[in-house]
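Aggregate trends can hide what the representation actually does to any particular protein. In the encoding step, the backbone of a single protein was reduced to a row of integers, each denoting a local shape. The record that follows shows the chain in one-letter code together with its fold in token form.

***
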Amino acid sequence: MKALRQAASRLGEMAASVASGIEQAAHSATGSGQGKPSDVDGLDESRSRIHSLRQAMNGLKQALHNHAKQVVMMSQSASSLSSEWSGLYASSTARSQSLSTFMSVQSSIESFGVRLFKDEFGWDVLSVFDEWDREASKMAADIDKTEKARAQVQALEEKVRSLRASKERRVKRGEQLTPKEEQQLEGSEQMLDKYNIALSNMRLNLDKNLTHFF
């Protein structure tokens, strides 16, 4: 019973360490520059922060899992030992009192182990880490989508610059664009405006989510 209480106390310390570790990992991952990313490098930086934080959290999760597993094993061993001794000395009148006391203690150990997880830590304590990891994965996916959208905008910007430069050269030579060429330039410019608005909204949402996440 004393050993299990010590294990429970250690698990409590682990839980506190996890909370502290989360704060330290987040601080380490975000670093001193917590400004919102404003370009591709900013997106890469945010992705790197999330990657570092996920590594730190996975290490904390594994440490907590290993210690919790030991507590569960001690509780199960108490139940198994109680059952074996009960069968071994069931017919012994001289040992009936000792057996009763022993079984009572072992039952308390098993109940303590169950109560430890049910009441103090919850059955799904480790699932909290899984939920956080899903959120981190979503943030990383959002960063990838934003970076892809920015690349599309940059490609379209390059196309518009090329079309405008071509028009300027034609004008200098006293030439006019064909209606089809004028339509192509106008359409590209309108599309660029729409893409820039969409990218701006996407970045605002991403920056807001990143601030909340970190």
